[in-house]
Amino acid sequence: MKLERVELFLVRLPLKRPYETSMAVETHESHVLVRVESEGAVGWGESVANETPWYSGETPATVWLILEEVLVPQLLGTDIAHPRDVSAHVGWVRDDPMAKAAIEMAVWDLAAKRAGVALARFLGGTRDRIPCGVAIGIHPTVDALIARIEEELAGGYQRVKLKIKPGKDVAVAEAVRARFPDLPFMLDANSAYALSDAPVFERIDATRPTMIEQPLAHDDMIDHAELAKRIRTPICLDESIRHAEDARKAIGIGATRIVNIKAGRVGGIAEAVRVHDTCRERGVPVWCGGMLEMGIGRAHNVHLASLPGFTLPGDVAASSRYFATEIIGEPFAIEKDGTMRVPAGAGIGVTVLEGTIRKIALRHAELR
Ligand code: MG
């Protein structure tokens, strides 16, 4: 197939509640939406870069620049035999995985629609429902956090993930375990600690979290492997895993026992599937991370999480938790049993509200 027309939209939505991590407080999400067209079929993708470069070096502005000046001009008119070839065409671009993923995802949606099958089926997914967890930002007080956890559990989520930062870590884990003796909860530090902080994690061990996500530097594996020897709680890497080779190495040296997969972080769905396969071959469970996606990115996550290695509940929660405005016609909701249905329609299987997107977009570009 050949892409004949690509459109970019910058959409900015306020979050219902500010989302605090160890590195930043987010109040809005600005995502670049990508619409690709070929022979009358249309596909959609969404970039997941945050408004400020705290998680990675990318922002909506860098994503826009790389798409408009580099990736789209290269892919327009290129014969793309299969969506997994997109990453090979743009592989010479050193960084910018979220920009690459945004257009690659759109090509996957387009190709699955042309094939007349759900993206999940197209990718080899095996489940029609996925288990869901919820990620909860840092709260001002432990009482406020506990109240929030109670609210989320009432909503049916199967596990909660709590963001931590130095000074809001051990006491949080202890209070949550005391209040919820059997709750599967995990902690995410977003790289806020160093190996010298190992005693913090030794104390957290006693509270039996299901895992600790990315405690140490975003570009580290060696110290994570050291920390792993000192604690019982499994370490799950997020930021450190940029592609399948990272996953192979991190598992090989004992730096991670679980992997968080985000298509945006690894440069697209094809690489996300390779990370999944690498982990599965080694018996390492994976789960689908979240980046406060709007409806299109969320839909891609749900289809990806239908692959067989995604055995743990991911951060794929109902979109109404985050946004008052929807950009798809069938917002994702959680069932009473804590699962979410994988759409059965072709491609991402949701109706993209193109009129809304065109109306609210802060920026638009059309490339042919
Ligand atoms: Mg994380």
Q: What can you see in these coordinates?
A:
- The chain has 368 residues and is of the alpha/beta class.
- It folds into two domains: 130 residues, Enolase-like, N-terminal domain (Enolase-like, domain 1, 2-Layer Sandwich), CATH 3.30.390.10; 220 residues, Enolase-like C-terminal domain (TIM Barrel, Alpha-Beta Barrel), CATH 3.20.20.120.
- The protein contains 13 helices and 13 strands.
- The strands form three sheets. The protein has a seven-stranded parallel β-sheet. Strands 3-2-1-13 form a four-stranded antiparallel β-sheet, with helices on both faces. The chain has a two-stranded antiparallel sheet with strand order 4-12.
- A hairpin with a 4-residue loop joins β1 and β2.
- α1 crosses α3 and α9 packs parallel to α11.
- The mean pLDDT is 96.
- The site of magnesium ion (MG) has 7 residues, from loops.
